[in-house]
């Protein structure tokens, strides 16, 4: 994302990199005092969960997400007391409220709706382990994918999911379980907002359940949010079906795939089929000021991209759709992503043509989300 930031922000970043303070760490992307939103990113916990705090500070995050354990394993070592204490101390030092500003992401293995009783129990045990890790760290939110019905009845799968959420709430004290909406691939639960509403209806303690809306998943599931009108149409539907009080977080991603493609392919802001406008709208939406807004855009091995994108989101505040600099920046980012959009559009159109020629068959379940380079399939 070279040349992403306006000159004033680049100058600020350069100055902060050179700045030194005896006995304190200098961060690459300093936070600004007047940012009205909790813009953040999914950061690494390599070397210990407490490192997530400094990694978040390094990209200028006002909130952050992380994995509580390896997302590639069912069982991981417990968080040591010393590490938990260090995590809390660093949160206090850098001004993060663990109850409101941190949104851990659950393992992609977890499928609480699994019709196989043994696999369902295995997923539940891992789920509760995550929740207890949250509470050890004093974290108040926990985000997870609602799973897949696989080959079972969809309504029965929703009931299993809700049953396991109820059991998990009984076994923990305070962490809010945040259900993420999905892109609609295979038999995944949650691409239709009604799925989430149905699950919430079956949750007994509604103070302990919330929703995370992922912009890429929303678009991939067929909800157009690219313009101000469409954006507000979606949120009106969300309010009607689910209820605004349940919105607990946003995952901020552009989409490599076109509208309604049911493909969970995250893209850098402004590069994809969503375009920069929706992110300008989000960066000026008063209703989103108090919740974590977490980037999950592709960064490879370069987390500084998150720093660039957070600075972009700061820059988008108070800008209108006809702002000359915004129009220029939107065009630049769109041009940078044009080749990749064309490639994915062709794949989508080719697949649509093949599907149209085939006789109707029962859909097979797909794999859960694609954040990992080698993503596990839902059991």
From TrEMBL:
It comes from the Eukaryota. One of its GO terms (molecular function) is DNA binding. Pfam families: AP_endonuc_2. The keyword Endoplasmic reticulum does not apply. Residues 338-353 have a biased composition (Basic and acidic residues). The keyword Nuclease applies. Gene3D superfamilies: Divalent-metal-dependent TIM barrel enzymes. Its cofactor is Zn(2+). Keywords: DNA damage, DNA repair, Endonuclease, Hydrolase, Metal-binding, Nuclease, Zinc. Residues 55-313 form the Xylose isomerase-like TIM barrel domain. GO terms for biological process: base-excision repair. Transmembrane segments: none annotated. Residues 332-379 are annotated as: Disordered. Residues 354-365 have a biased composition (Basic residues). GO terms for cellular component: mitochondrion; nucleus. HAMAP family: Nfo. Belongs to the AP endonuclease 2 family. This is Apurinic-apyrimidinic endonuclease 1. It comes from Candida tenuis (strain ATCC 10573 / BCRC 21748 / CBS 615 / JCM 9827 / NBRC 10315 / NRRL Y-1498 / VKM Y-70) (Yeast).
């Amino acid at each position: 994302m070279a040349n992403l930031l306006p000159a004033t922000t680049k100058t600020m970043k350069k100055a902060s990199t050179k700045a030194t303070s005896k006995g304190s760490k200098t961060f690459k992307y300093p936070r600004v005092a007047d940012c009205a939103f909790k813009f953040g990113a999914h950061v690494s916990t390599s070397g210990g969960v407490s490192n997530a705090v400094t990694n978040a500070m390094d990209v200028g995050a006002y909130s952050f997400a992380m994995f509580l354990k390896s997302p590639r394993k069912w069982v991981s070592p417990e968080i040591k007391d010393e590490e938990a204490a260090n995590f809390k101390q660093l949160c206090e030092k850098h001004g993060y409220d663990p109850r409101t500003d941190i949104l851990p992401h659950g393992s992609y293995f977890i499928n609480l709706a699994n019709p196989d009783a043994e696999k369902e129990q295995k997923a539940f045990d891992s789920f509760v382990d995550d929740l207890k890790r949250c509470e050890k760290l004093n974290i108040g939110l926990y985000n997870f994918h609602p799973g897949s019905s696989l080959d079972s009845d969809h309504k029965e799968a929703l009931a299993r999911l809700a049953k396991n959420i109820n059991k998990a709430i009984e076994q923990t004290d305070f962490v809010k379980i945040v259900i993420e909406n999905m892109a609609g691939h295979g038999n995944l639960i949650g691409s239709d907002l009604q799925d989430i509403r149905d699950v919430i209806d079956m949750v007994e303690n509604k103070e302990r359940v919330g929703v995370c809306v992922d912009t890429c998943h929303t678009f991939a599931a067929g909800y157009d949010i690219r313009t101000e009108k469409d954006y507000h149409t979606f949120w009106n539907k969300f309010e009607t079906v689910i209820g605004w009080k349940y919105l607990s977080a946003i995952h901020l991603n552009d989409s490599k795939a076109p509208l309604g493609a049911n493909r969970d392919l995250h893209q850098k802001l402004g590069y994809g089929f969503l375009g920069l406008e929706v992110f300008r709208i989000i960066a000026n939406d008063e209703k989103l000021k108090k919740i974590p807004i977490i980037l999950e855009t592709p960064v490879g091995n370069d987390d500084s991209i998150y720093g660039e994108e957070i600075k972009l989101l700061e820059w988008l505040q108070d800008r209108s759709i006809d702002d000359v600099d915004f129009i220029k920046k939107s065009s630049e980012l769109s041009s940078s992503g044009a080749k990749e959009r064309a490639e994915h559009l062709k794949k989508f159109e080719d697949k649509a043509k093949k599907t149209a020629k085939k006789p109707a068959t029962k859909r097979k379940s797909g794999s859960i989300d694609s954040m990992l380079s080698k993503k596990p399939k839902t059991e």
